[in-house]
Design goal:
Length: 222
């Protein structure tokens, strides 16, 4: 395949564990059994997800690529997850290396961090009460999350895009209403299926009907 100059494609849907819509790819086809990805971007959670400057062979999957996240809005991300009583404010950026094993994509040592400070507020009464009954450390966590003002978030992700992702987050900051605003560092470990986490009713309702039907019935990548 060969084409003169840069070619621009619009992408209705890529279901890569998370449904991404309205993307744009800028490609070049030099005629050497490869395509050169100048840029690939999707709007996502108030920012963008994409990649750039990658040479991809046309006859096989690349061994790896890196996906960049830029300017993601924490409030929009929380809205996508549709968790009642959870609020967040701030901006996130990061890089997600993806490797391919037997044709399946895996996230390997992705790193996401906050740009500047922000806040996390989780005020679900049932969950807070359950934490308080779990012991003193859990009670402090419940109280801290009622109005946590963070200065830094650093998160790592590992695992298959279509399977269980393991995440670790270090969140530094304080609750001005707790212990006179004494500095607190939260270390959080989570695991779960990324597809299920971000395939909430909120995400699906924002998709066009024709695309939504495909995503709801999909068992693999699109």
């Amino acid at each position: 395949m060969r084409a003169e100059g840069q070619q621009i494609f619009t992408i209705a849907l890529v279901d890569a564990g998370v449904p991404l819509v309205n993307g744009e790819a800028r490609l070049r086809f030099p005629g050497d059994l490869s395509m050169h990805l100048d840029s690939l971007t999707w709007p996502f959670a108030g920012g963008t997800i994409g990649a750039s400057n990658i040479k991809i062979p046309l006859d096989e999957l690349p061994s790896s690529l890196s996906v960049d996240m830029d300017g993601l809005d924490a409030s929009s991300l929380v809205g996508l997850m549709d968790v009642p009583d959870l609020e967040a404010r701030g901006t996130l950026t990061g890089r997600v290396p993806v490797i391919f094993k037997d044709g399946e994509p895996f996230i390997e040592q992705a790193r996401i961090r906050s740009i500047g400070g922000g806040s996390i507020r989780y005020r679900a009464q049932g969950a807070a009460e359950a934490l308080r009954q779990s012991g003193s450390s859990a009670e402090i966590l419940a109280d801290a999350l009622a109005n946590f003002q963070f200065t830094d978030i650093n998160m790592t992700l590992d695992g298959p895009l279509n399977g269980e992702i393991k995440a670790r987050a270090e969140i530094k900051g304080s609750n001005p209403d707790l212990y006179n605003g004494k500095r607190i560092e939260l270390n959080v470990n989570l695991s779960g299926v990324l597809r299920d986490l971000l395939r909430s009713a909120t995400v699906l309702n924002e998709l066009p009907a024709s695309i939504r039907d495909r995503v709801q019935g999909s068992a693999g990548n699109r």
